[in-house]
Amino acid sequence: MKFQSALLAAALAVASMESGQSFTPSLSLKSTRQHTTLGKSSLNMVATTEVVNGDSIRPRRTREERLEAASKGLQVHCVGLSIHHAEVEVREKLAIPEAMWNAASMEICASGDVTEAAVLSTCNRFEVYYAAPNARTAMAAVTKYLADRSGLPVSALRKNLFMLSGDDAVWHLMRVAGGLDSLIVGEGQILSQVRQCHLHSIEEDGSGGKVLSRLLNNAVAAGKRVRSETAISKGSVSISSAAVELSEMLSQKDLNLPFSEARLAVVGAGKMTRLLITHLASRGLEKIAIVNRSLGRPQELQEQFPDVDIEVKLMDDLWDVVGRSDIVYTATSSVDYVIDEQKLEENGLAAGRPLMLVDISVPRNVGEDCKKVQNVAAYNVDDLKAVVAKNTAMRQREMVEATNLLKEEATSFSAW
């Protein structure tokens, strides 16, 4: 681990030199290796102080060239951050919409130092899986990309990033696909996201080649196997259900009101909203207002939940809906705050009756300054950790069984 830390510190120094920032080497890098590994790492990376020439961009390799390069001993690496080690304030700086995963992967490969790349960006993690013949220059290139994209000081990145290589990188992806690295152990959404990562990587504008394609495909198969051969996902909860549980648990304290009597609203009408409505309906709550930019998706939700009284409003009516709601969940893809302290004050909702805001979006939809507003209780995805702790404790046996299956799948890939 000291070797890995030294490597990443050196690569970060490279990025720092290019951006003109000062950098003091340190071995205090946080490690994600708190989980079981497959044995000694097959790292063969060396620390570097070489500077990648950002002004000299080589032509992007064609798919055929990447496939040919795959036979020349590429090694798999992973760099990223997750909810386990980085606050949401940092994660949102690197968050990338799924529609832009391929563009980001292409940019990472642009210098020619990285042969293959695939980006996985969710509300709980941002990870780059890549393969390259020269580990040190590839690491420097990826690190520079992360620093440029986030706009964060190198020192801030250094405190939050993890780096894995070889068998460790393979094992990490297997745990991710199997749901063992999720905030909600066994949750199913991450498997779908890894599957999309694989599918995007093999698209015409994707940057996956023979190595990453096989790795991601194996990870998807491993995730499916874990869920079919163990009880890891049985009765498991999602971020959406955890948000509902959190609001139910704190309703009396924050609102002086039973959860069953709370007036509810959801901003956004995507997949997370559908899951929110599912879990709210399972608790007997049958009246929900949905605020969205357009009518199409909310109307689809009305059709999917005929037993729930869903009121549909456009964003022009947002503050009217917030003003008459007790609990507001936010789940949009907006990169700007939908609700913040200034907007609450401008709409006469500061220091008024109690209001709970539950934000399950990354980037965040609710500003951190809302927590300073009198009578407003604001929560984000990081506040769900306490809610899901008991879920993890209940799944220890399934986690052991799942780990054994994932080891088999990881060993199969490594032997390839």
Instruction: Give me the secondary-structure category.
Output: alpha/beta
What integer is the average pLDDT? 84
Q: How helical, in percent, are the residues?
A: 40-55%
Spatial shape:
globular
Number of strands: 10
What series of H and E elements makes up the topology? Answer: HHEHHEEHHEHHHHEHEHEHEHEEHH
**Largest sheet geometry:** 6 strands, parallel
How many helical elements? 16
Q: Whole-number radius of gyration?
A: 22 Å
How far is it from the N-terminal to the C-terminal residue, by CA? 26 Å
In percent terms, what proportion of residues is strand?
5-15%
Placed side by side, the strands forming the largest sheet appear as 7-6-5-8-9-10
In the predicted model, the low-confidence regions spanning at least 5 consecutive residues are 1-7, 12-56
Set down the secondary structure blueprint.
Elements: H1 2-19, H2 63-69, E1 75-82, H3 88-94, H4 101-109, E2 116-121, E3 125-132, H5 135-150, H6 154-160, E4 162-165, H7 167-178, H8 189-201, H9 210-229, H10 239-255, E5 264-267, H11 271-282, E6 287-292, H12 296-304, E7 309-314, H13 318-323, E8 327-330, H14 341-346, E9 355-359, E10 376-379, H15 385-394, H16 396-414
Parallel strand pairs: 5-6, 5-8, 6-7, 8-9, 9-10
Antiparallel strand pairs: 1-3, 1-4, 2-3
